[in-house]
Structure formats: structure tokens, C-alpha cells
Amino acid sequence: DEFNYYNRLTGAGKQGFYYNPEFESGSGIKETVRGHSTDIVTDKALRWLSSNTGGQKDPFLLFVQFKAPHVPRMPEFRFLDRYKNDTLPEPETLFDEYESRAPYAEEANMGMHYRPLPLLDNHDPGNNIYYKRMNRKQLEKWHSFRDPQTREYRRMKENGQLNGKERKRFAYQQFIKDYLRLIDGVDENVGRLLTWLDEHPDIRDNTVVVYTSDQGYFTGEHGWAEKRFMYEEAIRTPLVIRWPDRLKSGTRINAMVQNIDFAPTLLDLADVTIPDEMQGDSFLPIIRGEKPEDWRNSIYYHYYDHGKHNVPRHDGVRTGRYKLIHFYTDDVWEFYDLDKDPNEVNNLYGREQYEEEIQKLKTELDSLRKYYEVPPDHFKPPFVKAGKDQKL
Q1: Is a pLDDT exceeding 70 seen at residue 388?
Q2: Each residue of 4-16: pLDDT tens digit?
Q3: What is the pTM of this model?
Q4: What's the CA angle centered on 19, arms 191 and 39, to 5 degrees?
Q5: Distance between CA 173 and CA 89 in Å, rounded?
Q6: What local confidence, expressed as pLDDT, does residue 70 receive?
Q7: Which side of the chain, N or C, has fewer Cβ within a 10 Å radius?
Q8: Alpha-carbon distance 272 to 287, whole Å?
Q9: Half-sphere exposure of 40 (CA within 13 A, CB side)
Q10: 13: how many CB neighbours lie within 10 A of its CB?
């Protein structure tokens, strides 16, 4: 009952399917809609906007949330040819050997693995819940793009072209292209929403559009295609805001903002009292160019899902320059100077020249744990593994 209306993706662990997804409405009615989920979600959002806001100036709040670019990465057909003949730049740390760090980075199950789709004649979609959603025409069209890729993979493997680093290079190209194809779909559909607002200037000028994500993601950095660790790619989250009436286009704001700040900020925008139990802070003053003098100088991170992808529980603190990570299940520490080592490949914990800074961060970490009321029991064994097949 928190929303007047909702229509959400369901199935596939309640993340939904890419093709012919199922939706559930607030009244409990389920429907399967033919097409690609990113397009369909936008279609539904535009219908809601047209039905509920056309010409009106009553306030509204609309969440438009996509499955993309989550696994299994299945872009819409119109994007499958993109980047086909391109070799995309590799991240500097694609072949990271994890020297100087705790063993967890090397042992994490987060690598890029290319598994070619069987050729159409050998493919039984009934064995896969995602392909099972496709009708025969869609499946044939999908294979018209994927079968040549499978044949090329087999040819290269037979010729010994996919050994060592070349195997990872190949997997990276397949991964990043599908990732970007899904992002292109999101980009196109966000554009459709912004176009609708531009066509309704009476609504647009005082409507705040916030684009963000649940977390950052490793797109090949350190050889990974995942998240979880407190390294930069996973904790840096996109946050783009459009507010034509108040915020000048192209403005860049440098401030430490966290996802726990989103709800207080939206409430502040709506002139609604922010509940005391919310631990985040409204960054509305920062948007308005009035950064509070007491705004945070550090952020706290905590990963609880012990064992998932063979990544242990850990927490840590990040300031403008430094980062301290504590893998507390084994009392192991990592420390990085982000100015000198933005790729986080050189763990400096234990270095005498940084001892004073490390102690400051340990004090700050303890302070943040108390501020956010992290239960002390979280730092004590037993640490239950998240997955039955993990080796941690």
C-alpha cells in the first residue's frame, strides 16, 4: 500500500525476464507482454505519465526501474549488431595478478567466462528459463546473431587461439559488448522519458529526474564482471540529476553522497519531514549550491553476504584520498592511497610512512560503525556462508 500504482517485473528471482517478461500489478494480476523488458517498462511509464500528469501540476513520484544490464545479458535485437566489428579498449587491470593484496581478490569467483550458445539445431530452449520465454520466431532471430559467434569461438579454439591471455581477451570483448548493448537500450529509453517531459514544459521545468543505480560494477577491471568488493568500480555509483528550473546543465558537484541519502533528499524536495530513523542526509542544499560546512568527509561501506562469489564479509572507510578495508573474518587489512594508486593494485597497509594515516582511518572506521549502529555481533564468528557451492 506504499504506492497508488505499481506494475513490476516478476519471475527469474523477481528480477524479471528480458524477452516476453511477466509483470504483476498492485491488484495481483499477472500478464506476459511480448517484447524486450527495457522497452516495455518505458512504455508502461509513458502511459502512466500521460494518464496521470497530462496538463496537471499536482506533484507525483514515479520510479522507472530496469532489469538491464543484469545477467543474463540479452540485449534487444536492434542492438545486437553494435560493436560487432570493433575491438573495445581493455581496462588497465584486466590481467591483474593481485600482488600485495589479501588472497580474497585472487580467489574471488567473479571472472568473465564466455560460454557459447549451442547452434539453433542443437538448442533446446526448455533447458533455460530465459530462452524458454522466447517464441520460435524470436529464438531464430536471436540465433541468427549468436550462431556466427559460436562458430567463430569454435574455430579459434580449435586453432589454439584462445589460450592464456587471449582467452580472457576474447571473453572480455563478448562481455563488454553485450553490457554496452544493454546500456544503449537503457540510454535510448531514458531519452524517451526525457523527450516526453520536453514535450510537456509545464511539467518538465519543475520535475526532478534522478538517474542512479543500486551499485557500481567491475566491467573487466581486475579481470572481474561483478561487484561486492569495496574497490572503486563497485562503490562508485552513477548519479545524474536534471532539474531545469534550478540546476544548470553541465554542473558537476564534488561531494560524498551515498545511496542512503536518496530518500531524505526526495522527501526534502517534496517538503516532507525526514524521519529521525533515516541515517542518510538530504543533499538538496548541495544541489542548490549551498554545501553544508559539516558535510561528511568519509563514507562507510559494509559487505555482509559472506561467501557469495567467494568474497568474505568486510567493511571499510573511504575519504577523499585514502581507503581502508577490513576483512574482519580473518582480521586482514588493506590500505590504498587513491591519488597515487587509483587502480588499487598496491596495498600499503603496514607501510611505516602511512602508519599515522592508517590509525586515523581506524579511528574513523570505529566511529562510523557506532554512528550507523552496526551490531557488534556482525564482527564475530560464526560467519555463515551465503552459497552451498562456495569454497571460502
Answers
A1: no
A2: 999 999 999 889 9
A3: 0.94
A4: 15
A5: 9
A6: 95
A7: N
A8: 17
A9: 21
A10: 8
Write the CA distances from 370 to 226, 363, 364, integer angstroms: 29, 11, 10
Contact 346, 231 (CB under 8 A): no
Kindly give, in sequence order, each residue whose CB lies less than 8 Å from that of residue 52, ignoring residues fewer than 6 positions away.
60
Q: What are residue 333's DSSP bridge partners?
A: 326
Long-range contacts of 352-361 (CB under 8 A, 24+ apart): 357/322, 358/324, 358/333, 361/317, 361/319, 361/322, 361/324, 361/335
Task: For residues 51-77, give the mean pLDDT.
Answer: 89
Q: Compute the chain's Rg from CA coordinates.
A: 23
Task: Determine the Cα angle at 299 with ends 294 and 302, to 5°.
Answer: 150
Distance CA 376, CA 371 (A): 12
Residue 127 has pLDDT above 60, yes or no: yes
Asked if residues 113 and 171 have their Cβ atoms less than 8 Å apart, the reply is yes
Q: How confident is the model at residue 100, as a pLDDT?
A: 94
pLDDT interval class at 369 (50, 70, 90): very high
Task: Report which of 166, 8, 177 is spatially closest to residue 83, judged by C-alpha positions.
Answer: 177
pLDDT over threshold 60, residue 255: yes
Sign, Cα dihedral of 106, 109, 112, 115: positive
